[in-house]
Amino acid sequence: NAGVTQTPKFRVLKTGQSMTLLCAQDMNHEYMYWYRQDPGMGLRLIHYSVGEGTTAKGEVPDGYNVSRLKKQNFLLGLESAAPSQTSVYFCASSTPTGTGYEQYFGPGTRLTVT
Amino acid sequence: RKEVEQDPGPFNVPEGATVAFNCTYSNSASQSFFWYRQDCRKEPKLLMSVYSSGNEDGRFTAQLNRASQYISLLIRDSKLSDSATYLCVVNNEYGGSQGNLIFGKGTKLSVKP
Question: How far apart are CA A107 and CA B104, in angstroms?
Answer without folding.
Answer: 19
